[in-house]
Specification:
The chain is an alpha/beta fold. The protein has seven helices and five strands; from the N terminus they run H-H-H-E-H-E-H-E-H-H-E-E. The chain has a five-stranded mixed sheet with strand order 2-1-3-5-4, with helices on both faces. The N and C termini lie far apart (45 Å).
Length: 180
């Protein structure tokens, strides 16, 4: 949808009187650059800005550690694809992966019947101020968006009788390796 938005902006700038066009264009370009580097104060998927670079960097660390492990590794998308597909450049060989939908309690409980050797845990959304955890907001999110809190790496480790063996952090994002 962004190309359509940019086209609308361009048409709008063309409609401005001549003296305002350069100022409007410079302002919009400055806002575009700022939006790539400055995170908003509300929860957002990190692929919307350059936070995705930090996510990929953490994925590389976690994939490198996973490659040293043996057995099935449980994780969610996109980490599951990074471990399964060597052509993506995260691993040198295809790893055995059990893909989880998410890190919600229901998804983790499914692993209890046949626990994996390892679990790679991460949060797919960036919530810098913990707004998802606020008791006043959580019922609204649950009712209208089907939100259910994700389990932390420590909670997953306890539920599966495992332990957190490695953790990587960068710019507010965290990846954890949970193992037996």
């Amino acid at each position: 949808i962004l190309p359509i938005v940019y086209a609308a902006f361009a048409l709008s700038i063309r409609a401005l009187p001549g003296g305002f066009r350069p100022a409007a264009l410079v302002s919009m370009l400055a806002c575009l650059v700022a939006a790539s580097f400055i995170n908003p104060p509300y929860p957002f998927p990190f692929e919307n800005d350059l936070e995705f670079v930090s996510f990929v960097h953490l994925e590389q660390h976690a994939a490198s550690a996973a490659e040293q492990q043996s057995g099935v590794i449980a994780t969610a998308f996109p980490m599951s694809n990074a471990l399964r597909r060597p052509e993506y450049g995260f691993v040198t060989r295809r790893l055995r992966v059990r893909e989880m939908r998410d890190f919600r309690r229901e998804d983790v409980q499914r692993l209890r019947a046949n626990p994996p050797a390892d679990v790679i845990v991460f949060d797919p959304a960036y919530d810098p101020y913990g707004l998802f955890a606020l008791p006043a907001i959580r019922p609204f999110l649950a009712r209208y968006y089907g939100y259910e809190p994700r389990m932390s790496a420590n909670e997953i480790a306890a539920a599966l009788s495992m332990r957190v063996v490695r953790q990587w952090k960068e710019r507010g994002l965290t990846f954890s390796l949970v193992s037996r």
